[in-house]
Amino acid sequence: MTTEKGKAIFVDGPSANSMKAALGINLVSYQGLYRVLCKIGVCGALTRTPLVTMHPERVAQGEGLCKHLAGAGFDVLPVESRGSADDEAIKECIRRLDPQEVGEVVIMTSDQDFVPVLRQKVSQGIQVYWVSTLRPDPKKGRHALSSSVISLFQSGVFSFVELAKFSRQITLKRPSAVASNCYVPSDDSLTVITLRLRSDRPADHMRLASEIANLKKRFSGLTFTVEV
Q1: Which of 102, 161, 193, 217 gives 20 to 30 Å between its CA and that of 148?
Q2: Other CB atoms closer than 10 Å to residue 169's CB: what's the count?
Q3: pLDDT of 29 strictly over 90
Q4: Higher pLDDT, 227 or 104
Q5: DSSP assignments along 17-36, one per residue
């Protein structure tokens, strides 16, 4: 009796987070990302819970983020980036994969350091799907994938999956904001909106101010005043 092989999924947390700018995504829908990653390839079953690495400080400061990731189906591994410890943790998990049980590896990263261990798994008959994007980062003016990694896609060693194709599925839609005292004149010459945020967390107020500042970049005629 032949046992159907499964799929192992790994997310290089810091690298994945850096893709948001290139994809034009502010907030990620982790449930959407989970569904997208699970649909890649042909193996239906998972051999383990999809693993995502995260710096311990982010885990400590963002308990809610961990809950969202865990709720979406991910296993969060707190590990530092110093000395590439986070990459090494994923590499060790990949090394331990049994080709008798695992038919596919799906990895979300732009880091070429994973190439050697992934090539080893390819030599054992495991198909590798590399999830990333060739869209340029607006600030850097280029994408994060090296030419050596791209050549492995072109030669068929790894199968490249362009994450931009799934942007809509992995973008978290913000709930509609409630604005008080909103007045829009009939001639569309001026819109006045008064926003009030009640929160005991200074970070919430700073984040709101930052979001409004981003709106100013999009609307040349926008003016605002932040009162503390």
Answers
A1: 102
A2: 14
A3: yes
A4: 104
A5: HHHHHHHT-SSB-HHHHHHH
